[in-house]
Amino acid sequence: MLLPRIRLLRSVASLTTRAFSRRPVSLQGKAPDMSEVRNRLREIVGASTNWRDHQQALADRLSLSNQLAGSQDELPVRRMKDSYIEVHLPLGTDPTLREKYLNYHKGVRFGRILEDLDSLAVLICYSHTHNKALQRSPLSIVTALVDKIDMRKHIIHPDCDIKFAGHVTWVGKTSIEAKMHMSQYHDGAYTPVLDATFVMVARDPENKRAAFVNPLQPEGPEEEELTVSFRSRVLPPNSVWMEDAKVKGLEICHPQERNIFNRIFGGFLMRKAYELGWANACAYGGCRPNLVAVDDILFQKPVEIGSLLLLSSQVCYTEGKYIQVRVHTEVLDPLTRQHNTTNVFHFTFVTDKDVPNIVPQSYGESMLYLDGKRHFNQTVESQ
User: β-pairing, 357-359 with 239-241?
Assistant: First the structure.
């Protein structure tokens, strides 16, 4: 599906007049190479090429914060062809470049290809969010997730030219999905090598909080199908969607549960979180679970008497007989209606039988999945 779409976009998009419009392209009539991609990225963010100027470059970026959009509605709508980019990697015609990509076994270093895909994905996203009125972008676009890389061909020739092409296929409020296709010239024609999907997130100039990105307007049924993104996944056998593995609860914080300082007793919060997490693991695994570990309980905010305590448990990672559960607790002040997170608990349970695999669908769920896997790995390593 991606390859025909890329061919269509190639016919209607002009790379050199869009993504590289502010600088001359050295390859007349040809797609730029990776060095030009990285130079363009430095220009977009105002990055310094010298480490000694690094602090000054960071200080300059701080002044761009006032150029961020207050909401996504303030930003113009973009189309897929607005972010379409082709990049040329002349391994067959540039011996010096070929040397950098050659491995010990006289093949191509796949790690270099991953670096190139990452750089291209970032530039694709900056092309999507490009504002002609600004000299530098106030956004810090970073890689959040490599969703998938499908190898169409297992041999990458070190002496044949490579071509990358890609564009934005889905946009959230602060996240962007970029799909890329890599092909190689061999036996007189370009043949597919791999398809890759990267999910990027936009942050403020200090990389401390999320920033809004331009919405995407698909054109035609083919683009509509591409924008389905995460939701287009088919649930594998013996698996459960992450959104279907939640259990929630509510507690009224009565004076009976107060501590000596007239706040809600921390042990009460831990008990309620554990019981909800255990119930979720029991329902998910279909049998009685046993606790293996409790990890990283941080009391972020005291809970006042009379508050409404909202608890939400989520199965975020599974492996064999193990279930990793995250319980998030927050208080709701019924008078001000303000929500404040008080705790995040991580519980590892084990059951008597293998449990279904948990599968994320959204970017947020993917982040929970990765965090759950990290906590699980720490638990296993400490056993």
Answer: parallel
Considering just the CA atoms, what is the radius of gyration of the chain in Å?
25
pLDDT value at residue 12: 44
Residue 13: predicted pLDDT: 46
Contact in structure between 235 and 211 (CB atoms under 8 Å): no
Whole-model pTM? 0.63
Polymer length in residues for the chain: 383
What 8-state DSSP symbol labels residue 212? Answer: -
Residue that is written with structure tokens 């100039």 in the block: 205
Map out the domains of the chain with their CATH numbers: 2-232 (3.10.129.10), 239-382 (3.10.129.10)
CB 248 within 8 A of CB 313: yes
Dihedral (CA of 106, 109, 113, 119) sign: negative
For residue 14, is pLDDT > 50? no
Residue 338 to residue 49: CA distance in whole angstroms:
46
Instruction: Tell me how far CA of residue 115 lies from CA of 45, 121, 122, 344, in angstroms.
Output: 18, 10, 11, 34
Question: Over the stretch 293-304, which tens digit does the pLDDT of each residue have?
Answer: 988 776 767 777
> Kind and range of the H or E element at 380?
helix 363-382
The whole-angstrom separation of Cα 247 and Cα 242 is 11
